[in-house]
Amino acid sequence: MKKQIIAAAVAASMSAVALADVAITGATKVNWTSTDGGSTGMANAFSSEIDFNVVGKAGDTQVHVNLENKNATSLAVKNRYLTTNVGGVDVKAGTWFTGDSNLNDAATQNARVSMTTGMGPLSVNFQHEPAAAGDHNEVTVKAAIGGINVSYEMENTDDHKILGLSGDISGVKFDYTDSSSDLSTDTNDESGYSLTTDIAGMTVTYQHMESAEGTSSDGFFGTFDGKSDAGKLKEASGFGITTSLAGNTVHVRNYETTDASSTPVVERDTKVIVTRKLSSGATAEVTYVTGDSATSLDVELAVAF
């Protein structure tokens, strides 16, 4: 009997240790959107999104899996990769999404390996993506010079280069990206910058971007999917103000966008976003957009766990 009790205690202890090395987090949001497209009339839509993140850890090695469910469709694997350290080199291998920005709408990459290490004041990253039509390689060097963060990325595909600068000068935060390639027509020829400072309790932002052939985007100016010329963002600029009001966070943005179609459409939009944390643990967000082509109201409830 004692042996059975000891065995059960050991098994429980081992299970607790195993569970302690696996973390599960997630987030979900539901949206109701009403859009008045003028000549196209009123349209209402309901959408939902659920994300699960699972991280398994053994020593310095971690396995990351991100599952996504949109609008009650099947569960899709969004990110799946391993991170570890080999001889002082941080290694990441698998597939993962790129980040959202005014010059990019996040999308999954092909399977690749990323290796990062330090060389004196420099951080050097190398990424390799094998492909039947020709391997894709990237080298990125980062350093802090005089309080300014500098990054320079070189890719073998069409000799693509990306320069990044960011920092804070006298209370003004800035971020600048310039991307170019050797091709005469390529969406890699693009640039963007932002300036942010605090004035009288408000955060004031100016952002600008432009792309020679148009680019997908998901940032300050909204989401542009880049699946067609009319869906690509070619140029945009605008101001934004963020402040607190009666327990709410309020963002007001006014901007102008130009698409990449053969007869470019210029649109002026004003967007108001009000966000409030609820006592229930959820976050409510109401977004009102009025512009040249449509007026919309979006109500969102989101929670992270």
Q: Quick summary of this structure?
A:
With 305 residues, the chain is mostly beta strands.
Attribute tags:
globular; 305 residues; 20 strands; 18-stranded antiparallel barrel; mainly beta; two-stranded antiparallel sheet
What does this structure look like?
- By secondary structure, the chain is mainly β.
- The strands form 2 sheets. It has an 18-stranded antiparallel β-barrel. A two-stranded antiparallel sheet has the order 14-15.
- A hairpin with a 5-residue loop joins strand 1 and strand 2.
- The longest helix is centred in the first third of the chain and has 19 residues.
> H/E series, N to C?
HEEEEEEEEEEEEEEEEEEEE
Helix content: under 10%
Strand content: over 45%
Based on secondary structure, the structural category is mainly beta
Distance between the termini: 41 Å
Rg over CA atoms: 23 Å
**How would you sum up the global shape?**
globular
The major beta sheet can be summarized as: 18 strands, antiparallel, barrel
Average pLDDT across residues? Answer: 90
Number of strands: 20
Q: Helical element count?
A: 1
Low-confidence stretches: 6-14
Would you spell out the secondary-structure blueprint of this structure?
Layout: H1 2-20, E1 22-36, E2 42-58, E3 61-70, E4 76-86, E5 89-95, E6 112-119, E7 122-129, E8 136-145, E9 148-155, E10 161-169, E11 172-180, E12 190-199, E13 202-215, E14 217-219, E15 222-224, E16 233-245, E17 248-259, E18 266-277, E19 283-291, E20 295-304
Antiparallel strand pairs: 1-2, 1-20, 2-3, 3-4, 4-5, 5-6, 6-7, 7-8, 8-9, 9-10, 10-11, 11-12, 12-13, 13-16, 14-15, 16-17, 17-18, 18-19, 19-20
